[in-house]
Amino acid sequence: MKPMNYSRPIVLTVLCLFAGTAYAHPGHPPTGFAGGFAHPFLGVDHLFAMIAIGLWAAQQGGRALWVVPAAFIGAMGLGGVLAWTGLALPHVETAIALSVLLLGLLVATQRRASVIVGMGIAGAFALFHGYAHGMEMPQATSPVLYAMGFVLATACLHGVGIAGGLLGRRAMRMAGIGIAATGAALLVLA
């Protein structure tokens, strides 16, 4: 069997990370697809949680490598729809901060879970992240384009986590500790 070449996914993920830098119209907030794509990169809470999902999925291996991030993306979309319909979801910022803390701890401790449990954890946290994305959508923008943007950005961040997770356990453990510490700080501030 031919060994897997990780260079293409890594290059794609790095390019996704710099997409916000390529946005060449400063002075006004991006709307539509660009606004949705930028949103996960602009908050350390979303950024770290989404990378942590990829790291944790890489630790799990097997089907979890793609099913856990897919569950996150699906539930995140549902959270966005809930926000757009006006449904009130309590304690959103606290839940997001808690997601960063707990996902960081899962990565740092290399805690394994069944695929179903992993999907449940990812989905529960993603609901709150999606709700926050939906609530912060600019008024005069297309919800569909905005959602496409934040879904693609999330997939890119999951890809960063997966690539990092496949490259080394020690680095992953340190990343988990850093993510958990950030989550603890966010929880204090929430």
Summarize the structure.
This protein is mainly α and 190 residues long.
Structure notes:
- 78% of the residues lie in helices and 0% in strands.
- It has 190 residues and is an all-alpha fold.
- The longest helix is centred in the C-terminal third of the chain and has 25 residues.
- The protein has 9 helices and no strands.
- About 5% of the residues have low confidence.
- The chain is globular and about 45 Å long.
- It has one domain.
Tags for this model:
190 residues, mainly alpha, 78% helix
What proportion strand?
under 5%
User: What is the SS-derived class?
Assistant: mainly alpha
Number of spatially distinct domains:
1
Number of strands: 0
This entry's quaternary arrangement is: single chain
Write down the secondary-structure element order: HHHHHHHHH
Percent of residues in helices? over 70%
State the shape. globular
| Major β-sheet annotation | none
The rounded distance between the terminal residues' Cα atoms is 49 Å
Q: How are the SSEs ordered, and which strands pair?
A:
Blueprint: H1 7-17, H2 19-22, H3 32-42, H4 44-60, H5 64-84, H6 92-108, H7 115-135, H8 143-167, H9 169-189
Helix pairs in contact: 1-8, 3-4, 3-8, 4-5, 4-6, 4-7, 4-8, 4-9, 5-7, 5-8, 6-7, 6-9
